[in-house]
Amino acid sequence: MTRRSSLLSCASRPAMPLLLTDSGVRLAYADRGAGAPLVLVHGWSLSSAAFDGLAARLPGRRLIMPDLRGHGGSDPAAFALEDLGRDLALLLDRLGLEGAVLAGWSLGAQAALAALPAVRRRLAGLVLISGTPRFTIGDGWPHGQPAQALEVLAHRVRRDPARAAARFFDGMFAPGELDGPAAPRARALRAAIPAPSAAAALAGLAALAAADLRAGLAAIDLPALVIHGTADPICPPGAGRALAAGIPGARLALLPGAGHAPHLTRPDEVAALLRAFPAAAGVVAA
């Protein structure tokens, strides 16, 4: 793939099929390639296009990449985290996936955890990228953001959803992380993905503020990989370490100097980790 085709991939994506939920919400998703299925779930205010650069580095895999409700090509519906989990379960069931790896990034990691009880039988592994079981500080959890930070972001969304989403996007990266080749990719992605509706953006923030998934981690009984940047300004690296420690037998892959979106800034490293999973185990500093 040439540099130009990489930068234009977000704008030249083929039409996405739609999945209709029982409540009438239409969910867009990409389904491309052949091989062992890998489901990639994006984060707040973005869409499945966030994975296009990573997808190009994963030949030989069937890649299923949904747009969460309220995002991308899906209907602009409000939601709770439980809705996102049910949507993922419905998608995997409708596609009849078996032996899939479910990989979620940021809010998508929480959606994957929410879906896990319903989709466990369809999975060969779980990958959590820049994820956290609890987004905000409190109740013995120092690895998050102050609740006030979400309140400030919600205020910005109410005033101007597009500007708030763009500002959040720019804040995902570590200092200097966009000084190299990742900068054009990041700019192209930000320009190509429309901001979610204010209702959907606020619903996502409310889901992040309310979720505390720590209690369910010990029950996860399939191979798990946690990928986290050591300079993540959104979900501190301590969240990734605690997440991996809470899941029995989970592998932790720390990416030195990476921010909140390592699949954008370090796609080759993330792709290599995904190709090796779930065979490898232990703690890795990539």
Describe this structure as you would to a colleague:
By secondary structure, the chain is an alpha/beta fold. Strands 1-2-4-3-5-6-7-8-9 form a 9-stranded mixed beta sheet, with helices on both faces. The longest helix has 15 residues, at 81-95. Helices cover 38% and strands 17% of the residues. Strand 7 (224-229), helix 9 (237-246) and strand 8 form a beta-alpha-beta unit. The model is unreliable at 1-11 and 280-286 (pLDDT under 50). The protein has a single domain (3-285), classed as 3-Layer(aba) Sandwich (Rossmann fold). The chain is built from 11 helices and 9 strands.
Characteristic key phrases:
disordered N terminus, 9-stranded mixed sheet, 11 helices, AB_hydrolase_sf, alpha/beta, Rossmann fold
**How many domains comprise the coordinates?**
1
Strands of the largest sheet, in order across it?
1-2-4-3-5-6-7-8-9
Straight-line distance between termini = 24 Å
Q: What helical percentage do the residues reach? A: 25-40%
How many DSSP helices? Answer: 11
Organism: Anaeromyxobacter dehalogenans (strain 2CP-C)
Protein name: Alpha/beta hydrolase fold-1
GO molecular function: hydrolase activity
Domain AB hydrolase-1: 37-267
Quick rundown:
By secondary structure, the protein is of the alpha/beta class. It has eleven helices and nine strands.
